[in-house]
Amino acid sequence: MPELPEVETIRRDLREKILGKEISRVDVLRAKIVRADHGRFKNFLKNKKIKDIDRVGKLLMFDFGDQHHLFVHLKMTGQLIYVDSDNLVAGGHSDGPDLLVVPNVHTRAVIYFVDSSVLYFNDMRAFGYLQLANELEKQAVIKKYGIEPLADNFTINNFEQALKGKKTTIKAVLLNQGIISGIGNIYADEVCFEAKIKPIRLVSTLTKQDTKRLYTAIQKIIKKAIQERGTTFNNYVDPHGKKGNFLSFLKVYGKGGEPCLVCKNKLKKVRVAARGTVFCSVCQK
DNA sequence: CCTTGTGTTCTCCG
DNA sequence: CCGGAGAACACAAG
Rounded distance, CA A124 to CA A90, Å? Predict the structure, then answer.
């Protein structure tokens, strides 16, 4: 489940590899993942050069520098795997646990570059998508997203403003991309634990101090997760086929029923905002 | 049955 | 009765 830290890791890694490269050909192996007419899609991308790679929330945007863009959303199980020339294995160790052979049965699209390097879009569940956009469409999509936790404008004041008047739970707000962008189910629960706040609480019950702790926790968790190159809970891997290291730093996500790492009390698992939610009813108020 | 990200639809309330 | 907010639902596939 790639969330902001995973998508940002992919963005940074890919920028190192494919900036300036020219697309020679695109193959689409599963039609439904392309949100456009097939023929038009392949034709459009031919000879386009990667000028930059942007991100808003969990959405990657390849900028061709000519007012046109390619959006890539990985949804739950998407991967972007980069391979140099004719090397068929993306992972570093050909016989280690990180082995990732591409293409494979989950490869849905392949982007070939003029220099013979290749970018594979894998997606086991095929919920992710590739989409073309012009500058206007890009700006319209960006507008729908809330504050970015890493942006300069993510200040305590703007965070308070974003929460103001919300009548729902903290968990629902953290997951709402229109309020704050890039946080998914894993980091929402981790942020709440870090802030010592129950995710099921209503936003309206937050004191000024609570909000401040939530704000600090978002920055701390997101930054640390990026530093550790993301969380591999199921099938997330970076463009080289490598897992992220943040799994071992998780304190609540996926640990319902286990003892709290801080107080040993049994972690509660409930359903909030239609998502599985784990918290410690002792440590979190 | 479960899993999550997101888009749509429903419902409530002022 | 309209608009907005939020909840609920739908959907993807394994």
Answer: 17
